[in-house]
Amino acid sequence: MPIIHITAAFSNAVLVAILPHVSNFAEKLDLPIPQPITTSQIAHCNVSPWKDDVGGSVWLTNHYQFVFGSGYLRAFQSPTNWFNNQYDNWNDSEYFKRYLGKDNITTNEAVEFARRSFYKLGYQPKDFDISGPPTSFEGPVNTKKLGHFPFCRMEWDSPESKIQNLLGLDYSIQFDIDMQRKQIVGMDLSGRRFFRPNPKVSVVPDLETNYRNAGVIGGFAGLMNREPYVHMTPAYSNATLKATLPYIADFAKRLSLPRTQPLTTGRVLLFMPPLWFTNNGFDSVTMLTNHFWFRFQYGFVTEFGSPDNWFEEAATRTNWTYFDDKSCMTTNEAIEFARNSIRQLGYKPEEIHMNKPPSEFENALDAENRRYAYCQIDWNSPEDVQGTTNEYHLEFDINMQRKQIVGATLIGKEFMRPLPEIAAKPELESDYQKSIQGHMFARTNAPRFDTPPGEEKLR
After folding, report:
1. Do 150 and 274 belong to one domain?
2. Are residues 259 and 158 in the same domain?
3. Which residues pair with 153 in a beta bridge?
4. What is the pLDDT of residues 356-369, one digit of tens each?
């Protein structure tokens, strides 16, 4: 995994590139910071060492901290944020006076204040649903010994969903509010929906070669660089997809999965090729246009999921089928159905102890104890092989009304098969990095300098 050799010139150039984003953010949220923010207000800056991410953390002289990465301002903390306090000597009442006060807005007003602040940053309600109550809410806090802490933290999380996660549609939005000063004092935005293009940087960095001097990250990069990883090009990615698709088609056919035959590249909505491919195996995820997804690893489909899997997609809809003993499988029928499914996949139940009772059987029950027409059945390897290379795990998620497998997990050496042949010649990542060194960023006409014009050199 390539990292950048960070020089003072490159660090300063990155700071110059991201500082307008920090300044714009502070202005939109009416933070008590003189505008525009210049390098004279910077106390410290840590630049991201990763090749493809222009960003880092910025600390101002007034102790505000900002984190920029993936093209957007991801987080910030005010020095007055109670939730960011790490000091826990509760006998030091003088220290905690800085956080004490009274509420000048209600919790409902604080929630609306957070919504307005989020929209001020340019995000649209159609892209992020925060119109409803927050997923979680903390504060304000009263203590007998110290008094009242007028701070609240709220968070909006997208509905929990494996499919939404794979599509990059999940997100988390968090705001911390000082209810006395009516001020945003902390924020954290995470999720690929927020990603934007990297800002331009006027200095072209070199790749780091002395990993030992690059600290922990350098040690990790050095370890990765010693492995024979393949550089994943579009051509090699497409060849990988074509090689794995027959395995997925066979898996889907054996389990009689609906709307999966014939399986061609035209039915593929998303393909996530292996991030790190070696000759020992690779890990890829394929999602079809009907949102069925398959994880392929070590020559077999190790995971499968679908929109009809209550255990992974319960939060995405409300019209799930309730359990009805007149139209649904019994528990014993569901267990035998899972055993028959493993036979259809070409494995013998008795060789993986599926002829024994399952390790766990879970009905689909919501928070109000309503039962839905789904069950999850697990078989784990015997205790004497757990923790060894012979350990394995099987899970089947079943729609008990439709008598259909809607999710599955197969983990273990027992299921491994030879890897498919890839009809493309790979290029090693190490060779690719040598060929592009010095060309990772587009050169611009901007002058190259170690210190921004008119500014003091950052230390």
Report:
1. no
2. no
3. 138, 176
4. 999 999 999 999 99
pLDDT at 455: 38
Residues 308, 161 share a domain: no
Residues 51 and 172 both lie in one domain: yes
Task: Please state the domain count of the chain.
Answer: 2
CA-based nearest residue to 408, from 393, 390, 418, 389: 393
300 contacts 410 by C-beta, under 8 angstroms: yes
Q: Quick: pLDDT tens for 314-334.
A: 999 999 999 999 999 999 999
- In whole angstroms, give the CA distance from residue 326 to residue 252: 28
Same domain? 154 vs 246: no
Confidence class of residue 208 from pLDDT cuts 50, 70 and 90?
A: low
**Residue 47 included in any domain:** yes
End position of a domain, from candidates 182, 211, 240: 211
Contact between 60 and 43 under an 8 Å Cβ cutoff? The reply is: yes
Residue range of the domain that includes 249 = 229-415
Tell me what pLDDT residue 450 has: 37
Residue 110 has pLDDT above 60, yes or no: yes
Among candidate residues 172, 166, 198, the one with its CA nearest the CA of residue 187: 172
Q: Which residues contact 371 (CB under 8 A, 6 or more apart)?
A: 322, 323, 363, 364, 365
Per the domain annotation, does 457 fall within a domain? no
Query: Which one-letter amino acid corresponds to residue 311?
Result: F
Q: Do both 242 and 172 map to the same domain?
A: no
Mean pLDDT over each residue of the chain, to the nearest integer: 86
Under the banding of pLDDT at 50, 70 and 90, the label for residue 190 is: very high
Residue 459 lies in a domain: no
Token pair 């409803």 is found at: 132
Tokens of 45: 């800056």
Do 244 and 132 reside in the same domain of the chain? no
CB 111 within 8 A of CB 130: no
